[in-house]
Amino acid sequence: MNAPAVLSADTARPLVTTRLTVPGMKCAGCIGKIERELPKLPGIAAARANFSAKRVAVQHDPALGEDALTAALLGLGFEAQPVADNPLGDETKERKRLNRALGVAGFGMMNVMLLSVSVWSGADGATRELFHWLSALIAVPVIAYSGRLFFASAWMALSHRRTNMDVPISIGVILATCLSLYETITGGAHAFFDSAVMLLFFLLAGRALDAEMRTRTRAGIGALLGRMGKSASVIAPDGSTRRVAAKDLAPEMLVLVAAGEALAADGEVVEGISALDNAMLTGESAPEPVGPGSVVHAGTINLSAPLRIRLTRVAEDTAIAEIARLMDEAGQSRSTYVRIADRASRLYAPVVHSLAALAFAGWMIAGAGWHQSLTIAIAVLIITCPCAMGLAVPAAQVVASGALLRRGLLVKDGSALERLAECDIALLDKTGTLTLGEPRADVSQLDAEARAVALGLAQASRHPLSRGLAAALLREGVEPAVIENVRETSGAGLTGQWQGLAVALEKPAGEAQALATALRIGDRLQTITFADPLRSDAAATIAALRAEGIDASILSGDRNAPVEDVARTLGIFAQAEASPQIKLAALESLKAQGRRPLMVGDGLNDGPALAAAHASIAPGTASDASQQAADAVFIGEALMPVALAVRVARKTMRIVRENFAFSIGYNLLAVPLALTGLVTPLVAAIAMSVSSLVVVANSLRLARSAR
Q1: Are 455 and 470 in contact (CB under 8 A)?
Q2: Which residue, 362, 297, 397, 381, is CA-closest to 605?
Q3: How far apart are CA 58 and CA 41, in angstroms?
Q4: For residue 560, how many other CB atoms are within 10 A of its CB?
Q5: Highest mean pLDDT range out of 17-21, 266-270, 352-356, 380-384?
Q6: Phi, psi for 334 (deg, rounded to 5)
Q7: Which long-range contacts (CB under 8 A, 24 or more apart) does 484-487 make?
Q8: Over pLDDT 70: what percentage of the chain?
Q9: Distance CA 478, CA 464 (A)
Q10: Cβ atoms within 10 Å of 357's Cβ, excluding its own
């Protein structure tokens, strides 16, 4: 965060924060420009850019409106818009333009390369000139169309007297194209359309990958907010109801929430008894019984009877919106990696083009003439194209991700493997992570008659325990009995008639029977217990993590007793009843100690922790929001993919380091040769392609790393 600007004493009012969408941020230079220059303007105390979300949070005097802030950003060369106009930072149009440009560049590259191969193979005279003209006819429109994204960005930056990564790229592409046209018109031996188009294609491919990753990040927050009810039935003083959109709800409104409906705001129950599915918000697997006086939150689902609720917090003040904000803020801490990568890219282009310029100037001074000097400069430009360097990380990541996918783990974030390799401590949620997260009934004590009756009753309800009981009985091949007059009463259970007898699935007496139900058939009463079993390989996974030097512990929002049971079984430390804020604080504390925590969780309450952790993994049964927040998702009942991901990630980083070493060695050898005029553009193009192939071949060694 930047140092606050000096605000005058008479305007020393409480500052407010406004978030703006700035799609024009391209690199670390743009971030630095905004964060450095914006606070220098009157009334603005600080600015912080989130590159992943393409947003800027501006802390400013309340007297400044959004129009003034967007004007200030435009003065720095960045178009901006209020977040309200584009709440999820949707860049669909820009992404489509990017994909079209990538497709056109790919089409042009393939065709121009085919013609170039003929020239490289020895085509001469009129044939070579014909191929050069054909290449020009294809390449010039392709460069004009696909390159306009870079040209427009570069012009925008230069027109506001600043520079960005697109400026040297645009200069290089235009220079190579102009010289190629000159060679084509004058019947010269070499044209470099292939190099210019290829450069555009690889750069656009990188931009498309970046856009896709940022879209997924925004989708996570969108999925989280999607859990909230979209509207609510507001009860008027005369008792009538009307549907009101969630954004128009206000505190103190009285709303009616029907069974099966998601809550649209936080509030307090004033009438009715029911049970809420809070699992996505708290991690607690058992339904939470609620009655008058109970505090309820947006996003939870009313399972049985209607409730009347007095609203207390709405829209952006709800607990679920707070979790979304925490995820957004936590996501900013990851931008360190993005900034490092962009800083490297920002330095690379000027260095390369400076070398090319030095080569041109040096050979001109040496008397080589402008044509030869420019040809050598372009050879330097081509031979130092960052293809091998650019492939060093993504090629290894793609191969390793494919290997892990075959073992049931989907890596979502391209840089997740790098962070997974660095983790030195693991925090695991209990419900749904170490355990399967599904109540499983013990039906071993039931006879055939009881099983049939139990299934007949359980199938009539959507209560989690009923679903768990029905699933267990169906797995046993039980045929349901025909139950008549089935009725479900909130807080009491299911009742019905079977062959003239009263039958019921009802709540057993005693707190210790929280995860249990009682089956009544006439005067006969049997208790059916439920358990949330550990994953079968949970202990083996903890041992495998220890073998990698990673200590594991439990960080759960669940109650003390079940968490301690699991911790005792696995022999690890545990912290129970942790809210999203406590989980986030625990992670920040570890990071402050220099640790790099791996978070594994599934609940909605784990979302901020998953986003804030150094790396994170969620099971495939996790909430949509948690899956979106996590770096990786494992599928199936086995937990071992978590330990496997760490092992493969460390192998991947060894391959990445080898790729980098080769790329650096290649440039150290090739650049001096190009600078001294010993490499033609043709040889430069071949060398660049071979260097890329070597990096890809080395990365393919990871294909068997997950075995």
Answers
A1: yes
A2: 297
A3: 11
A4: 12
A5: 266-270
A6: -75, -20
A7: 486/457, 486/460
A8: 79
A9: 19
A10: 15
